[in-house]
Amino acid sequence: MEFGRDFRIKHYAGDVTYSVEGFIDKNRDHLFQDFKRLMYNSSDPTLRAMWPDGRQDITEVTKRPLTAGTLFKNSMVALVENLACKEPFYVRCIKPNEDKVAARLDEDHCRHQVAYLGLLENVRVRRAGFASRQPYPRFLLRYKMTCEYTWPNHLLGSDRAAVSALLEQHGLQGDVAFGHTKLFIRSPQTLVTLEQSRARLIPIIVLLLQKAWRGTLARRHCRQLRAVYTIMRWFRRHKVRAHLAELQRRFQAARQPPLYGRDLVWPPPPAVLQPFQDTCQALFCRWRARQLVKNIPPSDMAQIKAKVAAMGVLQELRQDWGCRRAWVRDYLSSATDNPTASGLFAERLKALREKDNFGAVLFSSHVRKVNRFSKSRDRALLLTDRHLYKLDPGRQYRVMRAVPLEAVTGLSVTSGRDQLVVLHARGQDDLVVCLHRSRPPLDNRVGELVGVLARDQVSCGPAPPLTAPCPGP
């Protein structure tokens, strides 16, 4: 302080120093009413709200504006009147230092303010009475888990009764007083006891909530899985019904001859129906084959069965095996194929039937026989249901060799268009012949011989199986 310029006022909150220089000017308010009226008439609503005094007309205000001291005095009077009609709660502010600097704490200055504000005396007074007061709902919400009568929700008549039951269970009813809306607690030890009980129960409650929430999540996930499987099940049923409806639509005309659904395309099935569709395709093929076979005349059935047997043996071994032509089988008795000697063969056939008592002629044809010395001779081949005969056409079809049919073990052909056939017999030499095909010249009779022999082997039952290897081109 400087002598003659500064003065200091001793205040309970601390010493306040003032300067006489400009003291009166600072006390004056040079903000005249014209400026307030100008700011109030602004188009900005914020400025209008900041200067409410500007609403007065110029004719109503003629005095000079009030000084700062007068305004402060008036505000203090209004504050006292407001506090008198209310229940005040005082807030004490402690200044950390006199220099208004952040992060600096003057301990002596703070102790001085605490002593002059009477904070310690106020605390002692509060402790002498009821130091803590809480509304019943707030107290019950915080400590209800410590009592079996109030957790999770009480069934008593009021919150006050629930609080009373809680305190009786803890033995603390002597340290409290019940008001109309609040609970008054005398000693801090009561709150400490309640807080300790609450702290012990919080982990248990947390585990309970976690268990309940995890159970809720698990049940929700289970319901979602069930919904997913339900949707999948109904979608699969829909796909199955749609596929069956599509099959029914496509195969409506399958009974119409002569194709019987040959050109129909099977729709791609769902994965679950793939075995079912494979079975259906097999059944459809059998049904279609039955429909086609049913229209074949009985006189052609033997030829069809022989062709089927030949196809099963030669389908992947030989491309040309005469499946597209009619099979005569007994070419030696045919006047077309054997015009000059068919009568002689008929007589020889009659004599052989009486001698060997065979039933039917399976195959007969002129052949070119090749012996072990690579020499060839004209011969005839006769296949019945009991024997395989090699005949000499130059000597009225005299029998040169007879092999029981059950002794025939196999047959070998080539993959080309030639008519070479090797017949294998058990315990005898192989018979190597080349079938004649003079009428017509390009007639292929290898497949016919293979089919007839294979058909006979199938019908005989216990006879050895027929094989048709492909040793050469």
Automatic annotation (TrEMBL):
Domain of life: Eukaryota
Domain TH1 residue range list: 316-473
Xref: SMART domains: MYSc (SM00242)
An MF annotation (GO) of this entry: microfilament motor activity
InterPro entries: Kinesin_motor_dom_sf, Myosin_head_motor_dom-like, Myosin_TH1, P-loop_NTPase
Location of this chain's protein in the cell: Cell projection
GO biological process: actin filament organization; actin filament-based movement; endocytosis
Any one GO CC term of the record: myosin complex
Location of the region described as Actin-binding in the Swiss-Prot/TrEMBL record: 76-98
Family the entry assigns: Belongs to the TRAFAC class myosin-kinesin ATPase superfamily. Myosin family.
Classification via PANTHER family: MYOSIN, UNCONVENTIONAL MYOSIN-IG
Protein name: Myosin IG
